[in-house]
Task: inverse folding
């Protein structure tokens, strides 16, 4: 995510590293390079110019403390200005504590509205909301069927009227249906077009006027760059939405859209969507993204992802096994499945401070996790509990059964034994007080 932007900013900031003080000359050289980086990233010209002016104003005349280098100081100023540009603070979704919350999704065709509507439904369902999806896209072939398939995957019902071609009626009838059937949250998936046109705008405005949604969210494909910002302005002028959803951010290495959109339409980014899986949705936090753009990682988001997957009782059981050196391949398999739910290995590593830049060009293949899973799943229960019995013939059987080589099996067993030795050494040196208490970690 935004790898190009991060890498180029890092190179630009190196120009001031090692300088004894910040002067108008060296700051101008650095900011000229950063402005070029922003424009290359497809950031809106006016936004880029204002950003550079704000950074320059704050940087010139700043005294460099003995404990801080000019490079560290300018990085801090850029971090603060990036956070401000992205919106300063996260913006929560407005939910009615009583009555129905109606969320209307608008945007161009192909931006990911239908998939995001299902992601949002799952997110809100996990927050104990009773959600109804509404198929109000009557133009795109199979749009209704697509939403029904996605709804069935997350156990959320979809309201549609097959014989009706009037999206305003479908949306208003859905609200009535929700009231009569005990739903407290309605998500309306509206139609898009390949380009901004009056028919689409008028239809979106008519639906909004009829149902008076609690939230109107503009969904935009980050990979369309400046086109995304231009369409956001056109929609905002006509429909006046409340917030922005940026999809496909994991495929955008430049960042022009995400850095420009808040400044242009003056509406907060509320969610980002990072993949095809229906749980790949994240609340948007400007300070966290600014930190990731500058290669400083995002530990808070990483911890939150882990907390969502950590079962409290399982965490306690795992801690006991680690302390007593009884961690086996069954436990290892559970941890692998937990990591898979959190996202790709590369995306997780990019959240660790100092690691993101090191892995940006690394060939980290998530299929290696699948290989490890297949090897463990080809073991018998007895072999998983006690890997010491894995002799040559057993290893050959596991290799054949998992579709891997005997070398792959041997390598995994060796790595597992090394991990066990390390855990045993740490637990013997530190005792229980030296181990991470996952229960407290979760509660805190």
Result:
């Amino acid at each position: 995510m935004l790898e190009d932007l991060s890498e180029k900013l890092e190179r630009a900031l190196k120009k001031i590293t090692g300088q004894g003080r910040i002067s108008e000359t060296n700051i101008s050289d650095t900011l000229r390079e950063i402005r070029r980086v922003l424009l290359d990233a497809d950031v809106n010209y006016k936004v880029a110019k204002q950003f550079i002016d704000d950074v320059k104003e704050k940087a010139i005349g700043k005294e460099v403390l003995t404990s801080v280098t000019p490079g560290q100081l300018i990085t801090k100023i850029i971090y603060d200005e990036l956070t401000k540009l992205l919106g300063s603070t996260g913006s929560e979704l407005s939910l009615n504590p009583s009555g129905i919350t109606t969320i209307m999704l608008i945007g161009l065709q192909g931006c990911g509205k239908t998939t995001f509507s299902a992601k949002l439904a799952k997110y809100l369902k996990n927050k104990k909301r009773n959600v109804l999806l509404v198929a109000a896209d009557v133009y795109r072939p199979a749009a209704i069927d697509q939403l029904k398939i996605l709804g069935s995957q997350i156990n959320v019902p979809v309201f549609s009227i097959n014989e009706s071609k009037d999206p305003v009626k479908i949306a208003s009838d859905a609200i009535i249906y929700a009231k009569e059937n005990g739903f407290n949250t309605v998500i309306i998936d509206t139609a898009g077009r390949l380009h901004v046109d009056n028919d689409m705008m008028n239809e979106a405005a008519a639906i909004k006027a009829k149902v008076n949604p609690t939230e109107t969210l503009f969904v935009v494909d980050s990979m369309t760059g400046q086109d995304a910002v231009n369409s956001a302005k056109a929609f905002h002028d006509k429909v006046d939405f409340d917030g922005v959803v940026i999809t496909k951010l994991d495929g955008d290495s430049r960042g022009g859209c995400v850095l420009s959109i808040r400044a242009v339409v003056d509406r907060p980014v509320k969610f980002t969507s990072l993949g095809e899986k229906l749980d790949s949705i994240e609340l948007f936090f400007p300070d966290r993204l600014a930190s990731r753009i500058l290669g400083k990682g995002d530990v808070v988001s990483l911890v939150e992802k882990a907390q969502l997957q950590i079962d409290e009782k399982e965490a306690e059981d795992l801690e006991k096994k680690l302390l007593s050196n009884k961690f086996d391949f069954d436990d290892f398999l559970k941890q692998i499945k937990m990591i898979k739910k959190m996202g790709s290995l590369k995306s997780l590593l990019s959240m660790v401070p100092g690691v993101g830049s090191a892995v940006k060009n690394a060939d980290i293949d998530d299929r290696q996790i699948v290989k490890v899973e297949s090897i463990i799943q080809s073991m018998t229960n007895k072999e998983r509990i006690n890997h010491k019995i894995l002799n040559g013939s057993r290893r050959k059987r596991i290799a054949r059964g998992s579709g891997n080589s005997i070398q792959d099996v041997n390598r995994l067993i060796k790595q597992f034994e090394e991990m066990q030795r390390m855990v045993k050494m740490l637990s013997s040196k530190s005792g229980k007080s030296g181990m991470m208490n996952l229960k407290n970690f979760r509660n805190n």
Observations:
- Strands lie at 101-106, 131-136, 158-159, 185-190, 215-221, 243-247, 269-273, 281-283.
- The first strand starts at residue 101 and ends at 106.
